[in-house]
Design a protein that fits this description.
The chain has one domain. The chain starts with a helix and ends with a helix. It is 52% helix and 0% strand. It is mostly helical.
Length: 100
């Protein structure tokens, strides 16, 4: 991680939590349970936008970041094709809260 990433991560709800909650393989029996738990943690996080922007900008291909799965993030990347997603993140977060 870069220093910039660490700055927001220090305030993240997930800091110090078991990483398997956020990085469970889809063929694992715990996938649905862990994904739901990860989303709940992300939904209440004060740095969710920064986390999601990082994952989108860096095109992180795995894990739950900012409450979105890799598939959801890929869809956002294909739709917007931006270098920085901070301007569209509030809209993305509002739409995902409706789905969950």
């Amino acid at each position: 991680m870069t220093t910039k990433t660490l700055k927001w991560h220090d305030s993240a709800n997930c800091k110090g939590m078991e990483t398997n909650i956020f990085f469970t393989e889809s063929n694992n029996k715990q996938y649905k349970k862990n994904t739901a738990l990860a989303r709940a943690i992300c939904n209440k996080c004060k740095v969710r936008s920064e986390c999601l922007n990082y994952a989108l900008t860096e095109k992180v291909p795995f894990g739950i970041w900012g409450g979105l799965s890799p598939r959801e993030r890929s869809a956002v990347i294909r739709k917007y094709k931006l270098e920085n997603y901070s301007t569209v993140i509030p809209n993305i977060i509002n739409k995902t809260k409706e789905k969950i």
